[in-house]
Amino acid sequence: MKRILFIGCFVVAGLAAGAQGMEEMWDSTASKKEHPNIQWFKDAKFGLFIHWGLYSKLAGTWKGKNYYGSGEWIMNQARIPVRKYDKVAATFDPVNFNADEWAQLAKDAGVKYMVITAKHHEGFSMFDSKVTNFDIVDATPYKKDPMKALSEATRMRGIQFGFYYSQFQDWHEPNGGRNTWDFDESKKDYQQYYRDKAIPQLKELLTNYGPLGIVWFDTPGGMTKEQTQRFINELRKLQPKSLFSSRVGQGLGDYKDFGDSEVPPVPIAGAWESIYTHNDSWGYIAHDMNFKSSDEIIELLANVASKGGNLMLNVGPDGLGTIPYYSVKYLKATGAWLQKNGESIYASTAGFIPAQPWGVTTAKPGRLFLHILNRPGNDTVLVPGFTNTASKVYALDGKMNLPFTQKSTDLYVNMTTVKNIHSPNAVLVVEYKGTAPAYNASAPVTVSAAFDNNPVGAIFAKTSGNAKVQSLTYSHYYGDWKHTTCVTDMLSPGDAAAFTVRITDPGDYKLILEYACPQESANQEGSLEIDGKTFLYRTLRTSAYDRKAPLLFIKHPVAIFTVVKPGIYRIVVKPYKQGKELFKLKSIIAEPIK
Ligand code: FHN
């Protein structure tokens, strides 16, 4: 399935994301009327996702075999028959679950909403349902409804509470989507499944748990656009204020969810959300230790906010109801950073200055927030294309004023006195007069000697011939989707990628191409042109592009270029001769030679 986003002059033809290619289409260009209750969501910026179900008890292991990637897919991955999976419920006793502790963690982390799995694809209801006995009250020794207490404890702390509900995939039911190992697909009646389980259960959730901020649907199927609209209308009556995620399907829903673990490369208008796992799985896996550190979470949060969206970060509690140690630790550290710097995130909009080698920007009326993710070696932050007049600049944490100068549309901030250099993200605030300018998507990308390296991403390429800018989706394990924007389809010298950069300092720069290259593309000659000089190189083999395997990128130094005069330069990358696709180009990195 193809999704096309039109943003400024960029076109990103994105490949489908979402587990097993089930992602719906959501038309970001359609002029939709916004939901009247959307503002809290747009302002929230940070949410907590929780995947919790019987799979949490299995913890990524079935019959002594470890599974990797999306742990909540273990029933599907191991083809566990329903009658065997039923038995897991008899062992599910989350005695450590404490609604107040979970809600307080959410509060300490600084999230503004929480969404938890009421029923995932496995079909097990983590709430008290009268529709089925395959629920936590009837089928487990725990016998209590954790969702009641959690919804109350969360709302009590001023956090919006919502449910995830898998409305089509239900591997427990003969008519539910996608259990093909127990049930004959050709005999499935999806409408009956909607009538008998999904709709009645959603009505229970929308009736028995107080006001829901969000109903987070996932992996739609089996319904036309008209049927989906009727389904929405029927549920809306119960809670008109509740927001429905775009994965209700058919381009409907109140806000856009990108593919799992996907951040758009440039700002996107409207309400939207990026969703991320904390390690490599949504559901708990005992042997998955790949947790993002708090620095990484803060960087991700700033990056998503700089594009105008929300980050909903997932945690996977175990079968006893304990949230993993590193999720607690890193969420609390993120919250501590937000305590001091939240002003630059909550209720902000996308920054109007494109990403720079030092970081990204967010904005509020009269204020531009500079998120310094890479501190410049000379402590001078250049904000190019600043068309307003700056009146004051200060560090957000501590409110210390900073010296600055403005030469035409170049604003230079001196951050020598900002001492919290170990902070993952020191936020500087620029106050200015007048209204914010529009985001300038075609501004040249800055390359400066003040940084160890200056990556110029594929999204900034102007392509010609057959070359394209594409978002490539792939996974390392199973369902742990990665998305990388690349220039693709360069097969002949006419298929080129041109990058316009502004090099601010004289000196020698090593030019490095970052690309993925399968065996059949390796050993071909490519060229890189800059300032009338042509550099040739021979491509090196990495890996082929396959949705179900890692896409490996190499950083290949191909030229040393001497800048005598700072200014605007054009770098053109293309095949030297007609051949196979040269490579999938992720970025050009300009590394100053010290
Ligand atoms: O298949 C699910 C997956 O298990 C997980 O729940 C994610 C979260 O966004 N949604 C689906 C895949 O997109």
TrEMBL record:
Alphabetically ordered keywords of this record: Glycosidase, Hydrolase, Signal
Gene Ontology MF terms: alpha-L-fucosidase activity
Signal peptide annotation: 1-21
Chain segments annotated as coiled-coil in the UniProt record: none
EC numbers: 3.2.1.51
Database matches in Pfam families: Alpha_L_fucos (PF01120)
GO cellular component: lysosome
SUPFAM superfamilies: (Trans)glycosidases
Family stated for the protein in its record: Belongs to the glycosyl hydrolase 29 family.
Name the UniProt record assigns to this protein: alpha-L-fucosidase
Species whose genome carries this gene: Niabella soli DSM 19437
Lineage: Bacteria, Pseudomonadati, Bacteroidota, Chitinophagia, Chitinophagales
